[in-house]
Amino acid sequence: MIQRPQSIFLLIVVIAEILVIAGWPLWTKTGMSGETAQVFISEWTSQIQGKAHVEANYIPLILLLISVALTAYILFQFKNRMRQMALGLVNSMLIAATMGYSFYTIYKKTIPLFNPEMQGAYDLGFYALIVALLANMIANRLIRKDEMLVQSSNRMR
């Protein structure tokens, strides 16, 4: 049944991930003399002394696209809750890997560009990834709760 509470949380995961893919920045840094650096899910850009630099970053984009497809698949696997739980765990790992690679990009590639003592600020895209991870974990917990309820009712018969 698609009307279950975990379905709502899985839809939240899909929406948050699509917003990140659509172009919400994960991190932004602006220097004193106008330098800027931004990290998106598919690239990171910088502009230092009028020179723009763009570097593609396809690994987190691919991970997030797989996660969106997996979440949509999980949503329609409501008849097999054990499969839903297992795939939900894999989905959590994909989202966490996306966040981890984004951290790597931020701290190893973009912070050292200019003013390394300035850290920058996380943007809406990063918080959307956190919302997606938390919503996925809540959905998994609700799926587990459903499975335990079904098992307990089977024992009573």
From TrEMBL:
Keyword Transmembrane on entry: yes
Highest taxon of source: Bacteria
Keywords: Membrane, Transmembrane, Transmembrane helix
Annotated TM spans: 7-27, 58-78, 85-104, 124-143
Pfam families in the cross-refs: DUF4293
Name listed for the protein in its UniProt record: DUF4293 domain-containing protein
Source organism of the structure: Aquirufa aurantiipilula
